[in-house]
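seq as requested:
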Amino acid sequence: MPKQLRDYKVRDWLHLRPLTQGYKTLRYDAANAAHMKKPARDERELAAVREAITGRRALVTIAFEDAEVIGWQIPLIRRYVACDAHVIADNSVDDIRASEVREAALHAGALYMRLPANKARESRSHGLALNWFWTNAVKPARPQAFGFLDHDLFPTAPDDPFAPLAGQDFFGVLRIAGERWYLWPGFCLFRFAAVADKPLDFRQDWFIGLDTGGGNWDVLYHHADRSRLRFMPRVHKPYREGVPMCESYVEWSDHWLHEVGYEGRDDLRTDKRAAIGALLAPHLTGAA
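struct tokens:
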């Protein structure tokens, strides 16, 4: 959404930003509303997901064209994480990659559904995927609690990420942008009863400096006292000794490892993936 009129500076008015940002907001909102009405690619998959998460604690991974990380994440969550259902919601664009993700998910024993196609790119596409699943799967199913995960996030020790919801309505990794804040959509959990009647919006809000998930600032986070809440810690570390963090890094949130696959030098991606695989190997052996 655009800023409040009082927040625009003189230079913003000179560049007509209140008008252009207002127009873009109307366009983005119309595209979001239209996307929410799209049917599932496979109604049987959607029905199975709704049935599996009804009244339960569900984790939902938004997958994107990477079967390998899905093949790692599912058994690690089954081994280490306290949850009742794990769903792979596939936002892949490429049909071949999507079929690989589906095969990996079903082989590892997770629920799978492919999300409706959208023409948006990167984080905007991710926001639409989250909103569609919230609108068409979570709200009708009414789980006890639900959480969204990135596909390259891996637990490496026992954890119950839903436990903090006993004392607060949501929990996850904190992102701060000036005076505003929000939960990173790659690790965020919600008590359904606390948000069931709220128009959650997991899209970006770039006009006020918020990335994907920031659309919930006005809806949810703005009304909470951040000082009274627990959040998952986040620490950046080199993915391998001797590689500067400015070139490539990973994130640790307690015992959860986030590969951060799109950050750093492109030529280090293969080596980084190999290092992640080596680190996870003993945990995967135990999971098997």
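The chain has three domains: 5-36, 43-228, 235-287.
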